[in-house]
Amino acid sequence: MRKHIGWMLLVGTLVSLPATPALAQQQTVNFTIGGFVPKGEDARVPGDVLNENRTFLVFDIRDFSSVAIGGEWLFPIGGLFEGGAGVSFTQRTVPTVYTFLVDNNGFEIEQELRLRRVPIDLTLRFTPLGHASPVQIYFGGGLTVIPWRYSEVGDFVDINDDVFRASYVASGTEAGAVALGGVRFQGRSAAGGFEVKYHKADAPLSSDFEGSRLDLGGWTYQATLGFRF
């Protein structure tokens, strides 16, 4: 937590620096759309609930890949840096069944697993070609704060192999790190490009769930459309 606070103070100080008058017209409102891909089974935190659930439910971690939409405000800091503040949204519901168990009537025991993430990113980017270049390559990172919600809804099996209906829900907000890189092509009033973003964060879960943690991290691949002013 101290490391996250340190990042917040550092990035917050840098992005709060005023832009020079010459660069004031280069602020950008960006809209993004793409896809979120969660971290694979071998890269997830120990005790991750999705990894634990895969030992008795039929699904794949990549089933939680989802559409990602968002928006952000970008503004120059000096000649080679850029601050940003943005938010995005992902949500996916994955239907699943028990691997080796059926109910007393021989029907599959079904559940739905749902994960929602709303990353809020505060970033600092390095633009080595400068803000005036029509082609801009950039990379950077910063702090992310992720409001999240995870649920398991459907039929469950107790220690006596009895099937019962239930709903388990967990939610919260977790701080973490974000890294990104991309390229954009800009004109006088608009810019378009492509960006890759990586989030690293995880959240604790109660004993209601098979896993003790929920890994919120993963990769986002997205197109960007910006309007400069």
Can you characterise this structure?
It contains 2 helices and 11 strands; from the N terminus they run αβαββββββββββ. The protein has helices spanning 2-15, 49-53; strands at 28-38, 66-77, 81-102, 108-117, 120-126, 135-157, 163-186, 190-200, 202-204, 213-215, 218-228. Mean pLDDT is 90; it is low at 1-25. The chain is elongated, with a radius of gyration of 21 Å. The protein has a single domain (2-17, 29-228), classed as Porin. The strands form 2 sheets. Strands 1, 2, 3, 4, 5, 6, 7, 8 and 11 form a 9-stranded antiparallel sheet that branches. A two-stranded antiparallel sheet has the order 9-10. With 229 residues, the chain is mainly beta.
Layout: helices, strands, pairs:
Layout: H1 2-15, E1 28-38, H2 49-53, E2 66-77, E3 81-102, E4 108-117, E5 120-126, E6 135-157, E7 163-186, E8 190-200, E9 202-204, E10 213-215, E11 218-228
Antiparallel strand pairs: 1-2, 1-11, 2-3, 3-4, 3-5, 4-6, 5-6, 6-7, 7-8, 8-11, 9-10
End-to-end separation: 37 Å
Secondary-structure-derived class: mainly beta
Question: At the third CATH level, what is the topology name?
Answer: Porin
Percentage of residues assigned to helices: under 10%
Please give the CATH class.
Answer: Mainly Beta
DSSP summary, beta strand count: 11
Q: Average the pLDDT over all residues and give the rounded result.
A: 90
